[in-house]
Fold this protein.
Amino acid sequence: MSGRKTWTAWPCWAQGAPYDFLKAAELHNHICPGLTSGYLLAHFILEHYPLAPEERYTIVSSPVWCKEDALQVILDCTPGKKGLVVKSLSKAQKEKISVPNPAGFLLIWNTKTKTGKGAALSFDFKEFKALYPENTPKAASLLSTIPHLKTPERFVSVAREFTLDETRYKAMIQASTNPYRVAGLMAK
Ligand SMILES: [Zn+2]
């Protein structure tokens, strides 16, 4: 694997980091709090929004940070399968989002009935970063956060749920739209 930096996973593995975390870290090519936030978001989704037959997940990543690489590995929502739609926002756009700690959207779409629902998710970094001392190196933060990987509800919450028809679903995932605007979660 020339050209790729190497990362050392063994201390995390030895401390009990789960297999799917290590797989996410392999793709992301480093370990950091942002990746861990993605792990927590993914497991929150699996726990609280299990899929019924004919349903599929689409993650709308917005704003974008390291979390996306854990979300795609754990939920099998890869960009190639149209499971991950990445939408960067400007600083001005982010400032207008009307829900706290925005961490993107989960869309659940029923391919048979052509209906679905969306959830705007929040991630509380203040609560998360309180788990380790301020100057902890990013990778080492995991050693403090591993014991909390089983309780994503402590950090992840649902800011808003909404229904999706085909028009809104397409508007959420298409290029050139701001998904917070489509979901009605932007200040004027
Ligand atoms: Zn990262």
In short: The CA atoms of residues 48 and 153 lie 10 Å apart.
